[in-house]
## 1
Amino acid sequence: MSSVTALTIAPKEMDYLRAKFRGYYREHLVPPRLLHEREFGFGFERKIEYRHKQFESAHGLQEFIQRESPFFISYSAAYYRYPGATPMGKKEPHGAELIFDLDAGYEHENHNPMLCTHCLNKVREETHALVEDYLLGDFGFSKKNLSINFSGQKGYHVHVDDDSVRSLSQEARKQLSNYVTAQSLDMDRVFVKQDLGSRKYVLRGPTSASRGWSGRVYAKARGLVERGNEEEMKKEGLSKKQINFIKENQALMIQNIDRGNWGAVKGLETVWRDLLQRTMQLKSVNVDERVSYDMVRLIRMPQSLHGDTGFIAKTMSQQELPTFDPTKEALAFSRTARVRMKMKEAAAFELQGESYALKKEEEKELPENVAVLLLCKKKAILV
Ligand SMILES: [Zn+2]
């Protein structure tokens, strides 16, 4: 019987993984831009155990990796004059990339904690919405300054690096991430009750020229009114009476909505507010805001390996994102070379296009990518 516990990797497996990781970096180390101005952090068991490391060149970074064999490599979003100095106050930052971190955290039936295709697809869709709707759309960042990478485990990271972003304050970064998550959106500023005196008022709201969140709710409401589809309106929670109201006053409403007058047909104020709320739920993107505003944080180095999976934190183009499949495209090792393994626990998952359902105590020859994943997840040992 093996004496390996569920929490540690035994020396034999550790040596195997270290050799694999070192071999990957010998061939595939991609040093980040302005490497010498970044702080580095490394982890062996946990993600970051050592930080405040600084390298003058890619050669220095490679030497360190070959000597120490870290399982996690992170770098600072911030650029420093003295990246290796401690405490933090002595580093002298002069700007930072803006980073959005999306992690899969969805509750659903049949979630697979080992490797969940459903969750991976969902977080990829959210990342795509973040890039298209917010970063390129509402914020107007330029494509060439965005870079997208898989996190190596469950999520995605988007880095924005241009002159306008580098100098953003922590507060400004907070506002940007709040905007994306719709945290700070004030409904009373999207729809405003304008007092006309003598107890009369109009409800002013988004117009055909509105952009951002206002533009989103405008498009949703106008579409709903224009199509006049009863089923669709019912799904949005409208009552029979409200639906009839809309159908009878369709043309008048469209005309007024386009000009920002949302009160032309009375009695629908709550409908518009509810619609805004649902738009916020549906369109907001679940980013980890701390990653965006905390400028001293370290983030996984793109193209490095993730120690909990052995997957590459792979960089991809915007065109590649919608169909990116980490279980095929983030694999670092051989698809064909076989390794004899013994399972410590049962595991079921899909990798490199094949389904695996492995039983406890089962012994099997498995492709290297599968072996590395199982070892990183502490589910198996080498035989
Ligand atoms: Zn899942």
Note: The longest helix spans residues 117-138.
## 2
Amino acid sequence: MRRMFRRQIRKTLAQEVPPILQEANFAFDKGEYGRAAEIYERIAQIADARGGPRAPIFYLQAGRSRVYAGQVVLGMPSLRRGLELFVQRGQLQKLHNMGSRVVMELTERGLTREATEIESMLKSSVPSMTVMETSSAHAKKPILPTHCPSCGAPLRPDEVEWLDNATAECGFCGSPVCEEN
Ligand SMILES: [Zn+2]
């Protein structure tokens, strides 16, 4: 009964996901990073102008897409803006989690200068990194599907908002995502 109920919720919410977001996630998934970036940038700017809660994650995904597309110069302003919004909103845990991932991804691609820039931005914004939870604290979290069933966004257990022990909220579309079993 419970599972059916959940499935119903998911179905209803899926209709509210903007097609433009699904399009961006689909392009990203197919490896069309330049195209994905253009759409994410548009979504991010609209969300930002509205003061929308998801603006930072859209900027970060736009920046990440540009970096994946090899357009690092175009990606850096989005990465900076996304992290800046976390600072302005006092979301330091998110800043720490997502900022660390950005640094890691830039480093992996040999973009040392860019990685250092983001790292110093994080250090100046987060007073003490030691008070932040490390990702190992999330080790016991249930396994999520790799993609949001509603909008198709990539999901990471350390980047989603957990609603309860088995349900997380997709940061891109706000739909509840249940543990995979
Ligand atoms: Zn979603």
Note: The chain has two domains: 19-132, 134-181.
